[in-house]
Amino acid sequence: MKRIIRLTESELTRLVIRTINEMENDEKCEGLCYLMINGECVAITDFENDFFIKIKEWYDEKKITESWFFELIETDPDVKEFYENAKWGGDSWNDNDERVFFYELAQSYCKGEMKEYLEFELSHPCYETKPKPVKILA
């Protein structure tokens, strides 16, 4: 069933502007460094509350859309060495450790500090860098 809807020029203009703004916001939120959360684009360096929930959501989405980054453990010798050193814990390594590992790596990548980060981590393999969840005060 077809319907004809009448719009005024101002309604049409408002609708077009809103659509363009939403498209621009979506484009700005694409890539490894951002995540769309409840219609809002958030930089991964700004994750504060619901820390592990956001990391899981980021990881699950970016593992598909930014697979090149997660393949660095196979293609980049420094990332591979860092990954193997981090995973050295053996049986205690779990899905959250995997997510946090890539989250930290992505943070340094997004800040343009990945090379320095890897160099530091490889020269100090025992240094604990896993982020701690931020406690939210009620």
Give a description of the structure.
The protein has 138 residues and is mainly alpha-helical. The protein has a domain at 32-123. The chain has seven helices and two strands, in the order αββαααααα. It has helices at 9-28, 51-65, 67-70, 72-75, 77-86, 95-110, 114-123, and strands spanning 34-37, 40-43. The protein has a two-stranded antiparallel sheet. The N and C termini lie far apart (52 Å). Residues 132-138 have low confidence and may be disordered.
- By secondary-structure content and strand pairing, the structural class works out as mainly alpha
Percentage of residues in strands? 5-15%
Give the mean pLDDT. 78
Work out the helix count. 7
Radius of gyration: 20 Å
Helix content: 55-70%
